């Protein structure tokens, strides 16, 4: 059994000391979710899309990517430098996006585990509720599996049930004060 609190603290040292967390409301709860990539079933979720919908790594101008990200969350723009930005496209225009982030190799119970995951996941409002974002995350997760990662981690989310459609499981819940006990 993996001690996910220790893994979290290893990946994000001093996370709960960040100044901006002090501004969070007391009742705001976020989740950390994981998926063992050995158990990832790529058939767990599927949607049909017409030919004008594609998925892949972004290779266009960085300013276009950043402007698109800002339409969803301006705070995420700083994390988008063009590397490992995986997107869903409609008519070759960005409809949804995420970063496939390498979170390092960590020793757990004497075993080395490679961790990565999709982060800063967003879909432009006009493309929501069509399955594009979830399909993008599924395809990104499949890439991480093919690249030899052991765990995919979803960090700092408030939409856990959405990721659970792909088999991700909540392993930690937290608020501005730290980890919460499961009830």
Explain what the structure shows:
The chain has 183 residues and is an alpha+beta fold. The protein is built from four helices and eight strands, in the order αββαβββαβαββ. It has helices spanning 4-11, 62-72, 132-146, 160-164, and strands at residues 30-36, 53-57, 85-90, 93-108, 111-123, 151-157, 169-175, 178-179. An eight-stranded mixed β-sheet has the order 2-3-4-5-6-1-7-8. The model has no long low-confidence stretch (mean pLDDT 95).
Summarize the structure.
The chain is α+β, with helices and mostly antiparallel strands and 183 residues long. The chain has helices at 4-11, 62-72, 132-146, 160-164, and strands at 30-36, 53-57, 85-90, 93-108, 111-123, 151-157, 169-175, 178-179.
Write the layout of secondary structure elements.
Elements (H helix, E strand, L loop, with lengths): L3 H8 L18 E7 L16 E5 L4 H11 L12 E6 L2 E16 L2 E13 L8 H15 L4 E7 L2 H5 L4 E7 L2 E2 L4
Parallel strand pairs: 5-6
Antiparallel strand pairs: 1-6, 1-7, 2-3, 3-4, 4-5, 7-8
